[in-house]
From TrEMBL, chains A, B, C, D, E:
This is Magnesium transport protein CorA. One of its GO terms (cellular component) is plasma membrane. The lineage of its organism: Bacteria, Pseudomonadati, Bacteroidota, Sphingobacteriia, Sphingobacteriales. It is a multi-pass membrane protein. InterPro entries: CorA_cytoplasmic_dom, CorA_TM1_TM2, Mg/Co-transport_prot_CorA, MgTranspt_CorA/ZnTranspt_ZntB. Its main location: membrane. It is found in: Cell membrane; Membrane.
Length: 372, 372, 372, 372, 372
C-alpha cells in the first residue's frame, strides 16, 4: 500500500500582496519573528560581534572605513527597522518590499551605491517536502546587511571561519563575504540532491524487488520536489551570471573568480537534477510496464484454468443429463436414451477424452509460451 | 461521476474582422457598451475628477502642462469618439483598430509622440473558465488614455491611491500611472493562480482519498485554464521587457525601476504556472496508474475465485454423471459403472481432494502476492 | 463508429523536379491552367483594368512613372510568359523556378531592383483537409506582379478596395499593395482556425456526452491539419520579419508599420494554433482514460457476477453428485452416501448458505466501492 | 502478422579509428575499392574527359588557368593517391583523414588556398533502410576534387549537363560545379522523403482498414529512418549556411545565390521530415487506442455471455441437486425434499424465470450501450 | 525473466565538501592513491622519462626553455604535492580544489600564465554501468601537468607516440600534447557508444524474436547510461569550443585546427547519442504495444472458449434438472415432467442444437477476425 501520507506535503502559503497595494509598500507579517541583530566588525587583525537591540545610528556604528561590517538580521517583524533603511540608508523602497515579501526568486540588482541580492535557503522538511526561506543581501562598500526569516540557518560555518580568520574571508571585503554566504547556501543544495539521489536508489531497489503502488507515489513526490528545486536553481544560476557580468566596483575581480566557481556549481546541480528527473520518468515507465506485465500474468492464469476446465465441465454436464426412454405403452420412464452412458467402459473412455483435451490445451498454451 | 459540467466552459467568441477589411478600419461592435468617460486631473497638490459626455475639445481640456491627466474610458461603442482620436489627436488608425478589436495580445509600441500598450484583465468566471477583457493605453507626455470593454474593473485601488495622493502616483507622471494600472492587472493574475493552486491541492487530496473520473475532468480543465493564462503572461512579460528597453522619453528611468519589478512578477508567474502544469501532468500519470492498479485488483478477484471454483465444479460435474451398467440380458439399466461413487467414504474422499486443490491454489496465489 | 472517411484526406502531390535538373529550370506543368492576365493601373485619381492576352511589351505598358501597376496573373501554363520575365524584365531564373515549382514555403528575398515573395493561400477542402495554393509576388518600384495557380482566390476584397479607392491602397505604392494582398491571405487563416476551433468544441462535446472512437479519428485529423497549418504560419512570420528588417527602398517605413501589424497577426495565429494543439493532445489523454475507465466498468460487472455465481454453482454441483451405497452382499446400489442430502431441511439449509455467501460477497464488493 | 523482417535492417558498421591513432592518420580500408579517376577539363568552349591511372603530376595536368578541372575519384583504396594530396598538393592531413574515415557529418571548412566539404549520398536500401555514402570535396581556384566510396552514384545528370554545356555549369567555376553536385545530392533526399511519404500513406490506409501489429513495426522503422535522415539534413543545412557566410573568394556571390536556394531546400526537407515524424507518432497513438478499443470489445463479448449464462447455469444446478427424503423407519431414501421440483409446471416456471433473468440483463447491457 | 541484476549498477559516491568548507580548500581523500609521478622531457630530438618521488624543485627540473615537459601524476593522495603547486607554482587554490574534488564537469579556464582543463575518462564497468574518472590538466608555456585518480588509463598510445616521436607530438608544444590526451579520451567515448549500439541491436533482436521483460530492464539501463554519457559529452563540447575561442597564446592556431577536429567529434558523439536515445524510447513504445497485443490475444482465447462452452454447459444443466411428477394420490414421485427428456431422439436433437450454437459462435468470432 506504500505510504501515501508521504505524498501530500504541507505547503507554506505566502501572503500575497493585496492587489492594489502601493508598489514599494513594506509589508510586516504579524506572524514573523522579531529581529535579532548581530553586528560583526572585522578586518585582517580584529574581529568583534555585538548584539544590537535595534538599528538606530547604524551608519555611525559602521563608519570606520578600515573595517568591514556584517549586519546579520534574523527575523523581519519590525517596521521601525525598515524605516532606518529607507530613511537613514536611502535604500530603494522596492528593495525593502522585496525583503519583506519572502517569496522572491534568487536575483541580483545593482543600485546607486549598493547591490541587492536574494538567495533561497532550502531544507528537507519532516514530511519529505522542501522548507524554503528567503535570504536577502544589501551590500555596500564596507557593510553587508543580510535578512533572514528564521533564527536558525546553515551559515554557522561561515561565522566560524570569520571568527577564526581562516582563508580570505576577513580581508576580501563585503563582496567576498556575500559570496561565502551564497556559496554556503548553494552547497546545501548538494546535500539535498544527494539525499534525494538515495531516495531514487531506494525506489529503484523496490522497483526490482517488490514494486507496489508506493513506487508511484514516491516517484511523483520526488519529481515534485525536483520541480521545486529547479525553480530555485535556475534563477540562482542566472543570479551568479549577473554578478559575474556586473560592472559594479563593489564586486572585485578576485571575488568574481570565486563567483565563477559557484556558477559552475549551479550548472552541476542543474545537471544532476535534470538527470534525476529523467531517471524518475524512466522509473514511472518501468512501473507502468510492470503493472501491464502483471495484468498479463493474471489473465494467463485465468485463461489457462478456465480454458481447460470449462469444456471439461461441459462434457461432464452432458453425461449428467437425464434423457430417458418412455415406454409408449405404460408411459413408464426408464433410463436408456443416451447410449454412451451404458457402454462398457463408457466412463473410462470419457475420462480419457477429458484428459486428452486438457493435455492438448496445455501443449497449446505451452507452445504459446504462456508458462514462462 | 465527477462534475463534467465544469469541464465545458462557455467561450467568448470574438468577432473576427471580415477578411479584406481595410487595415486600420475602426470596428464598432453593436453589442459593446456606450462609453463612460472620466477625466482625472492631478498634480502634487490637486486632484479632480470630472465625468465627460464626450471627448470633444479634449486637447483643450488637457492643455495645462503642470498637470497630469487620466482619461478613463469604459465602453467602446462610439464611432464619434474614435474620430476625435484619429482627427484631433492624430493617433494612427492601426492603433485605433487594435483598441476596437479586443482580442489582442499584450504589447507595447512606440509612435511619434505617444506610446501604445495593451494589457489583458482576467477574471475567473462562474463556470470556472477565464473572463478576458482588453485594456488599452495611449500615453502622451501628460495625458494617459485608457480603454476598457466593461464598466467594472479591478482598478479602483489605483483610483483611490490617486485620490488619496499616497505614494509616487501623483507626481511621477503618466508613465508611472500606466505602470500602476498594469501592475494592478498583473497582481490580479497572482490571485487567479493562487485560486488554481488550491484547486490543484483539492484534486490531489481526491487523488489520494477516492480517485474517480472527475480527477481527470478537473485536471484537464485546469490545464486548459493554465494554457489560456500562459497565452497572456508570456506576451505580458515581453511587453514589460519592451518597455524596459524603450528609448522613449515618455518612460522615465525612475518608472523603469518599477517596470523591472513588474517584469520580475511576470517571470515569477510563469514559473508558478509552468510548475503547476507539470504537476497537473504528473497527476494525470498518477490517475492512470491508479486505474491500471484497480484493473489488476479486479482481475485478481475474478481470477482467484474462478481458478479455485471452476476446477472444483468440474469434479462435482464428473460425479454427477449418470454412467450406468446395462444388463446385457434384460437390457435393464442399473447404476454401478463409476466405481468411485460406490466406494465407502467416496464422498468424503472427494470433498477432501476438492479442499486440497483449493488450498494448493490459495497457497499458489498467496506466494504470487495476490492477496496483498 | 465515427466517420473514419474524414480521417483520410486526399493530398496534392507536387511534381518534384527530376533530380539533376539544371538549377533555375522553369518548369511548365502540363496540368496547370493557361494564364489569365489582368493589368491594373491606378493612382490617386485614376483606376483602370485591362485584360491582356500575353505579357509582350509589358515594360512599355507599365512605363508611366506617375502610375502604379498591378499585373495579376492567374494560371502558370505559359513558357512564353516566363521568357518575357527572364529576357525582358531580367528576373533571376531561380525566382522563376520558384514561381513554377508551387511547393515553396513563404519567403521574402531581395534582388537587384526588385523583391520576390511567396505566400500560401489556404482553403478548407471538401474532405476536411487543407487546399494549398502558392501565390508569388515580384515587386518593382511601380509594378507588382502576382502569380497564382488557380483562377479563384480570396483577394476580391482587395480588388474592390482598389477600384473604390478606399484607404491608402491607391496612393501607397506597390509595397502597400503587396502588403494588402498578403494581409488578406493571413486574415483568411483566422477563418480557418476559427472553423477548427468549432470542430474542437464539437469533439469536446462528444467527449463529454458519448465518446466513441470517432473522437480519436477526428482529433487526429485536426492535429494533422494543425501541423500542416503550422508549416505555413511559421515561415510566414519569418517572412514578415524579413520584410520588416529589409533595407530595400521598395518598402516604405509607412508600409512597414502595416507589416508589423501583419507580423503580430502571425504571432497571434501561432499562439492560437499551439493552444489548440495542446488541447487536442489533452483530449486524446482524456479519451484514453475514458476507455480505461470503461474497461474497468466492464470487468467489474463480469467479476461481480462470476464471483457470486461460480461458487454457488459449485455447491449446487456438489449436491448433484451421485455418491451411493453399495450393498456389500447383493451388490445393489442405493442412494444414501451423502448424509446432508437426506437431512431434514437439508435443501433449505443449502439455499440459505448460498444466499449467505452471495450476501457476503455483495457486501465485500460494496465496500470496495465497485457499485459506484 | 505484418512483416517484422522489414523492421530489422542491416547496418553499415564503420571502422572506428583505433583509439590513440595519430590525429591526421590516413586510414586505408582494405575492403574499399581501388580508385577510378576521371579528369574533366572544361571551359565555355571545350569539354574533355580523360581516365587517369593515378594522380601523378596532377598539378601539371591541371595547370591551365583558362580551364576548369574536375578530378572525379571513385574508390579510396590507394595510399599512394593520398600521398600526392599531402605532398604535392599540400592538403592538410586532417582533411585527408576525414576523407578516408567515411562516417563524417556534412560540413564545410576553409583552408589556406582551398575549401573542404563533405556531403552524404543516400539511397533507400533493399531492406528498407538507408544506404549512406560519403562524398568529399576539395575545391581550389580551378580544380575540384571529389571522392566517393563506390563506383555508382546519382551524379550522372551533372556529368551530362557538363558535357552538353547546358546552363551555367561550364562557365561558373569550381564553386558552381561543387554546388551543382551538392544540390543533386540534396535533390535526391526529396525522392527519399517522397517514397517514405507514400509508405506513411500506406500505413494510414492500413490503420483505417485492418490495423494489425505490422502497423507498429512499419511505423517504427519509418521513424528510425527519419531519425537517420535528420542526422544528415541538419548538418547539411548548417553546411550550406557556412558556405553562404564564408568570405573565401573561391565561392562567388553568383554561386551563393544558388547556395541560398539549396539552403531553402534543406529547410523544406527538415520541415517535411518533422511533420512526417509528428504524423508517425500520431499514428502510433491511434494504433494504441485501437488496441484498447478492441480489448474493450473482446471483454464486452465475454462479459455479456458470462453474465447471462453463469446465473442461469446456477439455477439449473440447483434443480439438479439430489436432496431426498429418508424414511425414518425403513431408512429408505426417496425423492421429495425439494418441493419446487414436484410442483405442476415447475419446469416451465423455471424456464420462464431463466428467460426473464436473461432479458433483464440484456436490457441492462443494452442501456449501458454495450451492443453498439 | 531477463537479467534484472544488470539493471542496478553500483555507483561511485563522491565525497561532497562539508558545507561551509573554505572555498579553495584542498581536499585529500584518505582512500585515494599515493601519487606516481613521471617526468617526460622531450623536444624534436630528445625524449626522456624520469620517475620522481615528489615534486620538490619541479620548477628547476623543468627550466630548460628549449624542451617541453609533461609531468604525469597518477594518484592524488599527497597534501605536500599540492603545496608545491600553490606555493612554488602559484596555482590558484580554486584550481587545486577542483583537481582534488574529482566530480567536476569537463571545462577549460584561463589563468594568469597557465590554462586549466578537466576531462572525464570513462570505462564500461563490469556491471554494465560507467566508470568515471577525472583527468585534470595544468598547461604552462612548456610544462603540462596532468592529474589522474587511478594508475591505469587509456593514454598509453600517446605515451608511445611521444616516445617514438611520431607525428607532431614532440614539436608542437604543450598545447598539442594536451590536445592529444584529450582527443584520446574523446576517442574512447566512440568505443563506448559503439558497444552500446551493439547492445541496442541485441535488444531489438530480442524485441522481434521473443520479447520478455528484460527488454524493458535493459533498455532502461541503456537509457540511463546514455543520460550519464550525455552529461559528459555536452560540457566536453563546450570545453572544446572554449579552447577554440581562447585568446591565450598557450594554444597555437596550429593546435586549434586539431581542437576543431575534436570539437567535430564531440558533435558527432552527441548526434549518435541522441539518435540512440530516441531509438531506445521507440523500443519501449514497441514493447508496450507488444504487451497490449499479447493481452488481447490472451483475452481472445478466454473469450472464445468461455463464450462457446458456457452456454452449452447451461443447456446440459437444464437437462440435468430433476423435475418430476408427483402422483397426487400416492404422493409418489416419478420422472416425467420435462417432456423434451422423453422425446425420441431428444438427446440427439440436443447435441445437434449445441453443435449449432457452437458453430454460429465460431463463425461470429471468425468474422470478427479473432482467429487471425
Amino acid at each position: 500500500m506504500g505510504k501515501p501520507t508521504r505524498f501530500k506535503q504541507k505547503k507554506k502559503h505566502y501572503v500575497l500582496p493585496e492587489p492594489g497595494t502601493t508598489p514599494g509598500f513594506v509589508y510586516i507579517d504579524a506572524n514573523s519573528l522579531t529581529p535579532k541583530i548581530s553586528l560583526y566588525s572585522f578586518n585582517t587583525d580584529d574581529f568583534k560581534v555585538v548584539e544590537l537591540a535595534n538599528l538606530k545610528n547604524i551608519s555611525e556604528k559602521t563608519a570606520d572605513k578600515s573595517t568591514f561590517y556584517w549586519v546579520d538580521i534574523r527575523g523581519l517583524n519590525s517596521a521601525e527597522m525598515f524605516t532606518v533603511f529607507s530613511d537613514e540608508l536611502k535604500i530603494h523602497k522596492l528593495v525593502l518590499e522585496d525583503i519583506t515579501r519572502t517569496y522572491h526568486r534568487p536575483k541580483f540588482e545593482e543600485y546607486e551605491g549598493y547591490n541587492f541580492a536574494i538567495s533561497r535557503m532550502l531544507n528537507i522538511a519532516e514530511d519529505g517536502g522542501l522548507d524554503n526561506e528567503q535570504v536577502s543581501f544589501i551590500q555596500t562598500k564596507n557593510v553587508l546587511y543580510t535578512f533572514q526569516e528564521n533564527y536558525e540557518d546553515c551559515l554557522d560555518a561561515v561565522r566560524k571561519r570569520l571568527k577564526d580568520g581562516k582563508g580570505n574571508i576577513r580581508i576580501s571585503g563585503t563582496g567576498y563575504l556575500m559570496y561565502a554566504l551564497m556559496d554556503m547556501i548553494v552547497d546545501s543544495y548538494f546535500s539535498i540532491l544527494s539525499k534525494w539521489s538515495e531516495d531514487l536508489d531506494a525506489i529503484e531497489d523496490k522497483l526490482l524487488a517488490r514494486p507496489d503502488r508506493s513506487v508511484m507515489y514516491e516517484t511523483q513526490m520526488l519529481k515534485r520536489n525536483l520541480i521545486s528545486l529547479r525553480r530555485v536553481i535556475w534563477p540562482e544560476r542566472d543570479k551568479m551570471n549577473d554578478i559575474l557580468r556586473t560592472e559594479s566596483d563593489l564586486i572585485t575581480d578576485q571575488t568574481k573568480m570565486f563567483i565563477k566557481d559557484a556558477y559552475d556549481h549551479c550548472i552541476q546541480l542543474m545537471d544532476m537534477l535534470e538527470s534525476m528527473k529523467e531517471i524518475a520518468s524512466t522509473n514511472i515507465d518501468m512501473y507502468l510496464s510492470i503493472i501491464s506485465n502483471r495484468m498479463n500474468e493474471i489473465m494467463k492464469v485465468l485463461t489457462i484454468i478456465s480454458s481447460i476446465f470449462i469444456p471439461l465441465t461441459f462434457i461432464a454436464g452432458i453425461y449428467g443429463m437425464n434423457f430417458a426412454k418412455q415406454d409408449p405403452v405404460t408411459g413408464k420412464i426408464m433410463p436408456g436414451n443416451m447410449p454412451e452412458l451404458y457402454q462398457e467402459h463408457g466412463y473410462e473412455y470419457t475420462l480419457f477424452v477429458m484428459a486428452l483435451i486438457a493435455v492438448v490445451q496445455i501443449i497449446f498454451f505451452w507452445r504459446k509460451g504462456w508458462f514462462k
